[in-house]
Specification:
- This protein is of the alpha+beta class and 463 residues long.
- It has three domains: 97-125 and 332-463, no CATH class; 129-218 and 320-330, PDZ domain (Pdz3 Domain); 224-318, PDZ domain (Pdz3 Domain, Roll).
- 45% of the residues lie in helices and 22% in strands.
- β10 and β11 (254-255) form a beta hairpin.
- It is elongated.
């Protein structure tokens, strides 16, 4: 399956599941509180599938053509005539706390879903990286704090961390709470437990899209080298005699540590014959042997795009011993997985709210906002990695959906809750004129946000 099809499939599955979950929250609470539900739709536009229940309510269940949302339509005098005998089942006739409960149920079930999705992820198990610190960047906050090569992070401000992802999320959460002094507990290469006092007060970690850990000076430990993939037939690499799994030592006399260095030299030397040194394992002896070859970069057209290249892929990989030490399997029993899922949901919610606060104050860049294209890209990647990663991705997007819908913006659930809160305080509903103006403002705000998200997505694609 191509990357585009994989991303599209994963995106549609993600949206379908999370919209169904969100709308089911509204639907279930409405039914429990005695409100008549007329329609439950996943998607908008032309119905592809319709089922009418055989109950007295005759609720329509719809699967529609545009899978970018959904809705629950309830009996409501504002949307049509309601028979006298059914007035007590109309949404607008319910006391304010019932209306608030129905509206709040959508975002609430997104948080509940996230807890159980993370729980399932931990039960299935994930393969993750251990938080080993490599050589930190000179003069960086981590260098000033005294971090050493092969420090293994075990906790941040007393909160245990088991993986690199745990370390990143916990550290960023503590940064938002108090960046001036963060106590990072580590176990040194010699096995000694100590604390590194990290001061991040001078950094604005969300001022752009850059990796926050990298801004602190963090580099992951590992004995890495650059290795080749299978060369394209009759490509410069193939003609040069380069083989899959050859380790790249140098190109044109320059030591190569990653793709960027390799690509830069290739692009500047079209048509020139360059010396390239690779290390290759001898089949007979099993020992590595350095071999000097010659390669001539040329323009190659791939999928309608012309680029100067040698027709081979490279990747940054580590030796087997390093890989075993770097990776860890995280798996819990059901009770522990539930507790960890709840804790991780709380941690991610706090972090998301903190970053949103930084967006409002201008301390975080609007470039951090992502739209459907980025979501589809991450959905496809997570599904390609493993089922457990995709489940974790679903949990994260469900959390984001829940948080976004609770924002006090008219047209969102949070906007309705704001109106109902005002009604509770003043003793009567807000006027239709005020509600209409609020809805227009809300639509403008959401529309602007979506345009910005698409703009950021397109810029990322262009990069």
């Amino acid at each position: 399956m191509s990357t585009f099809l994989m991303n599209t499939f994963a995106f549609l599955v993600t949206i379908a599941i999370l919209v169904a979950v969100h709308e089911f929250g509204h639907y279930w609470v409405a039914k429990k509180l005695g409100v008549k539900v007329l329609k439950f739709s996943i998607g908008f536009g032309k119905p592809l599938f319709t089922y009418t229940s055989k109950s007295a309510d005759k609720t329509e269940y719809i699967l529609a053509a545009i899978p970018l949302g959904g809705f629950v339509k309830m009996l409501d005098e504002r949307e049509g005539k309601v028979e006298d005998h059914e007035l007590h089942r109309s949404f607008n006739q319910q006391v304010v706390w019932k209306r608030m409960a129905i509206v709040f149920a959508g975002p609430a079930i997104n948080f509940i879903f996230a807890i159980f999705a993370y729980m399932l992820m931990f039960m299935v198990g994930i393969s993750a990286l251990n938080p080993y610190v490599g050589n930190v960047d000179a003069n960086s906050p981590m260098a000033i704090a005294g971090f050493q090569n092969q420090d293994l992070v075990t906790a941040v401000n007393g909160e245990p961390v088991a993986t690199l992802s745990d370390f990143s999320v916990t550290l960023l959460s503590e940064y938002l709470a108090n960046p001036a002094q963060i106590n990072v507990h580590v176990k040194t290469e010699e096995g000694r437990a100590t604390i590194r006092k990290l001061d991040l007060s001078a950094l604005k970690l969300f001022a752009d899209e850059g990796d926050p850990l990298k801004k602190m000076g963090f580099n992951l430990w590992g004995n890495y080298f650059v290795a080749f993939g299978q060369p394209m037939k009759d490509s410069p690499a193939d003609k040069a005699g380069i083989k899959a799994n050859d380790k790249l030592i140098s190109l044109n006399g320059v030591p190569i540590h990653g793709f960027a260095e390799f690509s830069a030299i290739i692009k500047k030397n079209e048509g020139k014959t360059l010396p390239i040194i690779v290390s290759r394992k001898d089949v007979a002896t099993g020992k590595e042997k350095e071999i000097t070859l010659e390669v001539t970069p040329k323009t190659i057209e791939i999928k309608g795009e012309s680029r100067v290249m040698v027709g081979i892929g490279i990747g940054r990989v580590s030796d087997e011993a390093t890989s075993k030490r770097l990776r860890t399997e995280v798996s819990y029993s059901a009770p522990t997985a539930f507790v960890e899922g709840a804790k991780y949901t709380w941690k991610m919610t706090s972090l998301s709210l903190g970053v949103m606060g930084k967006l409002v104050t201008g301390e975080a860049s609007l470039k951090n906002i992502s739209g459907p294209i980025s979501i589809a890209n991450y959905a496809g990647k997570s599904l390609a990695i493993s089922l457990s990663f995709f489940i974790g991705f679903l949990a994260l997007i469900s959390l984001s959906l829940g948080i976004m819908n609770l924002l006090p913006v008219p047209v969102l659930d949070g906007g309705h809750l704001l109106f109902y809160t005002i009604e509770l305080i003043k003793g009567s509903p807000v006027s239709e004129a005020v509600e209409e103006i609020g809805m227009r403002i809300g639509l403008a705000m959401v529309g602007t946000l979506m345009v910005l998200a698409f703009y950021n997505d397109i810029l990322r694609l262009l990069k």
